[in-house]
User: Fold this.
Amino acid sequence: QSVLTQPPSVSGAPGQRVTISCTGSSSNIGAGYDVHWYQHLPGTAPKFLIYGSSNRPSGVPDRFSGSKSGTSASLAISGLQAEDEADYYCQSYDSSLSAYVFGSGTKVTVL
Amino acid sequence: QVLLQESGPGLVKPSETLSLTCTVSAGSISTYYWTWIRQPPGKGLEWIGYIHYSGTTKYNPSLKSRVTMSVDTSKNQFSLKLSSVTAADTAIYYCSRVATGTQGAVDVWGQGTMVTVSS
Assistant:
């Protein structure tokens, strides 16, 4: 069971905006540790999407945005496209576990 | 763009040691931290640990007693050994690179290699 909780699934129609939450605690996100996000298509390598809670690496469309507040973080996908259908994971550091941890993962479905 | 490629046996017997190597190409292993991450079938991602090109390591405490990572800068490779494996260690294993200046963000991933623990 992950210390970072994500909804199992979210869905939206093409062009819509969806958000994925990542809920942690005072030993990880709430302690000020950065949150990173990845997009993962089964059978392929995960893709680096967001780092430092809200920064996009070069080449990532600005349709993807991240934010953090208190003990939670969020990933928003605007202008949803069919190619966005994938699993999404958040990541942070947990001081109690003394380890980097990943969220439970969220499957995004484009209707 | 740097490329990472995992190599090693796809089948390991219970109680034996899983050994994987990651070859870094189109880039240098120096100055970076390198990590191993795994994903059991149907489950999420799990951070195993990281190694700096200098040899400094940090392991997930849940696996620390069984994990050893090493680096060979002359071959541009780093390796993972996981001892006393059980079926719970069956997973896709990814080698990856920690992005410079971040708190553990992974910017480059290998394609992953499936390791099954079974007799």
In short: The mean pLDDT of chain A is 96.
